[in-house]
Design a protein that fits this description.
Number of domains of chain A: 4
Low-confidence stretches of chain B: none
Radius of gyration of chain B: 21 Å
Order of helices and strands of chain B: HEHEHEHHEEEHEHEHEEEEHEHH
Structural class of chain A: alpha/beta
CATH architecture of the largest domain in chain A: 3-Layer(aba) Sandwich
Largest sheet of chain B: 8 strands, mixed
Number of domains of chain B: 1
Strand content of chain A: 15-25%
Mean pLDDT of chain A: 95
Helix content of chain B: 25-40%
Number of helices of chain B: 11
Oligomer: heterodimer
Helix content of chain A: 25-40%
Radius of gyration of chain A: 27 Å
CATH topology of the largest domain in chain A: Pyruvate-ferredoxin Oxidoreductase, domain 3
Low-confidence stretches of chain A: none
Strand order of the largest sheet of chain B: 2-1-3-4-8-7-13-9
Amino acid sequence: MRKAQRVNDFVIKLANVNGTGSASANGLLMKSIFRMGVPVMGKNFFPSNIQGLPTWYEIRVSKDGHLARSGRVDIMVAMNAETYARDLAEVGAGGYLIYDSTWPRDNVLSRDDVTVLGVPLSRLCNEKFANARARILMKNVTYVGVLAALLDIDLEVIRVLLEETFASKQKLVSSNLDAISLGYHYARAHFDCPLPIRVEKINGTNNHVIIDGNTAAALGCIYAGATVAAWYPITPSTSLMDAFKGFCQAHRHDPETGRSHYCIVQSEDELAAIGMVLGASWNGARAFTSTSGPGISLMSEFLGFGYYAEIPAVIFDVQRVGPSTGMPTRTQQSDILACAYASHGDTRQVLLFPANPEECFYFAVKAFDLAEQLQTPVIVMSDLDIGMNDWMCPSLEWDDGYRPNRGKVLSAEELNEMETFHRYVDKDGDGIGYRTYPGDHPRGAYFVRGSGHDKYGAYTEDASAYQEVLDRLSVKWQTASKLIPEPIIESKAKIDWGIISIGSCDGAVREAIDQLEKQGVHLNYMRIRGFPFGDAVQRFLDKHDRLFVVEQNRDGQLKALLTMETVVAGNKLHSILHYNGLPIDSQCIVDGVAEQMKEGVAA
Amino acid sequence: MSYINKPKVHHPDLPKNALGLTERDYEGGMSTLCAGCGHDSITAALIQAFFELNISPHKVAKLSGIGCSSKTPAYFLGSAHGLNSVHGRMPSVATGANAANRDLYYVGVSGDGDSLSIGLGPFAHAVRRNLKMLYMIENNGVYGLTKGQFSASADVGTKAKKGEVNLQPPIDPVMLTLSLGGTFVARGFSGDKRQLVPLIKAGVMHNGFAMIDVLSPCVTFNDHEDSTKSYAHTRQFYHPAIHTDFIPPTDEILTSYEEGEVMPVELHDGSRILLRKINRDYDPTDRSAALSYIQAHQDQGEIITGLLYIDETKPDLHEISNTSEEPLAHIPYEKLSLGSKTLEAIQKSYR
């Protein structure tokens, strides 16, 4: 029976053991397909472990550029005997499974509707390579060679990639090429190559890069001109600071003295990290921290101080699964409410919601500008899926004309001309006062405090003087709603149902909308990108009769925030929730809409 | 209102320092602490020290946490920026501030609750980083603003105003800082300004973290009989181990001392401190000897004071981080951005 051709539209999943060096082989496989011009997306499902536990890498190949998980696996490379049974079960009907046949498998572990291809990877590598570590590592590269034959991946593309990767280690280039060719020739000799599921060169990746959100955010911090960073290691945000440090070490030194134009402090805990960021920002540097949910909990007191004392700060919350320690290596969007109202008292925090690494880069820069314009902390709400997975994005672009917007800061010259200076007086009616930097001018001195203060900055317990400042902060909040990035709205006039979503749900929502469209269900789409919500969000809510709110948490936090912060009838909003820790897939949204429509009809 | 501006009327005959400023220019708002509070004497010592050091007040950044002690930065150097942060977290804010601008002088004022209980972690790590700042602990053994609970520095057997006896051993900031590798460890007494002012001056000029534990009796909650942090008790058991004289870079040493009696230490900016030892065997540059000397004397109920340990050679946070001489906050953006071409080059490896 001849199988249907599936060109440039399939999912490969690689089941590995943590710590065996599979990551670079899987990256090589994905990048080779990318270089053939075919859009790809990589998702890493890894354990909170250093060595030994199962780990998976999923590559979606999609000529249409769908970036979310599809919820289906077409080819499984089952390298982990421990998870073999469940890996086999996950393959879709008509799919393929490749395993290391050095030690034959029980016949029970096979399926009629899945083609099982055995390759004696261990035997091949043991014969070819002498070194014990190389035998383990090269097994991974060998299965890339097998896949190259099966999927018709251009060997020349692989060769160039290896030469670029190991430019300074020629020996590694040749051993890797040996392993590729080992697998490639074995597959050509034993299987009918290529498979009906295969890759074909197209022009779908021009001007695109493969990058993770944490690296992109770190680049954004570099380009925003951040000089002070303080942090405490926590998955999944650690790679953001690692990347920032790497870029700083490579690019941020005084050309004459070699001294650093940055200071990165690994603090004793997250409380200290945010304290350092506030201290540095108060003192005129652009400063930031990166953390995840548990860190946000610890930083909350200081975030309230930043709000009330009006000190800029940039915080990246790379969200992971909660509550409590939760699952550190799984993804969720479950810090929305904790961040929006972080700290006791009437406190509100400005939030930005990037949907992909590209937005991580631009929003990082935006976050510094907003924090200084608004003189308040800004939290960039990334998540593990965006932060740590490999995304295909348009190349990041930079406008060399950009200059930081430092907000309202009085220079020494301006202070010299003034009679008096008062920190919290609202001269411009936008709720934002003028700042001064310590050390610039004696007249600029003022006393920052988290205790009750009047508009002059002096301590107060006077009822109306206290309230005046609190009310002015509300005016500032209104100003903020005009400055944060507008939502992305895709709508047609005659559609009165819509989907609202946020952050990393974007790819899955878009694919779901396409699929629903084919089923005759038409939905408008709004992706919210910042908090406070602006007028555009309110208008979208007003225009639609029924709205599905898609988010990755159990309690419908975005929906709750919309209910509290806009004027909308609660029964108009219907949650579609995904919160098992895996990145959301399009199918769960399609199913969610269908289910709610059924309920709607029944009601 | 607990914040009152003092009128700025200067008597024409007030002495001026090298900057042409009088001591009044180093004052701040009116104190709202209790009459007789030790903290006010420390404030006065800070004013005198900065006046005598000829430092422009606006080149100083004052930081504090929460508590009676932490209110005091409002009472000195009115034309310096101040930041009254959250409880126990002043060292963190100071670390960030210092990272951003190494050109300012940093003065942190804290208390025994702020530094030894809620803020013990950040305090310890500021010591460990040798953050260049003067760190004053105004130590009275009680929580004043919440009305007299024991703090972590309360001695075993000391009695609270309401009669409760403390049975938990104290955390001694001097022993703690010494054991954490602190590079400037001193103890003073709010009632001895002559000793305290040179300690402050030396601490301001020290190249690293200068911790001064200042016994500062709480007249309202901890100045009774049976309290070991009262004026009377402190005066009775007070033992300076060493006298400190601060000599600015330009001044000559005029007094003559006997051989072996004086130990000069040169500070980073060229100023010197002369340590006059009461006990000839005491060596303030020998950490383990200092630890055992202080412990032995404290076991006998003595309160050992003075500049008890100094090491001027250890690198501070900036030297460890190799940051530029130019403060990070002052580096123009043009030197920080990498430009579009570099961004393009970086992304080559992402294709």
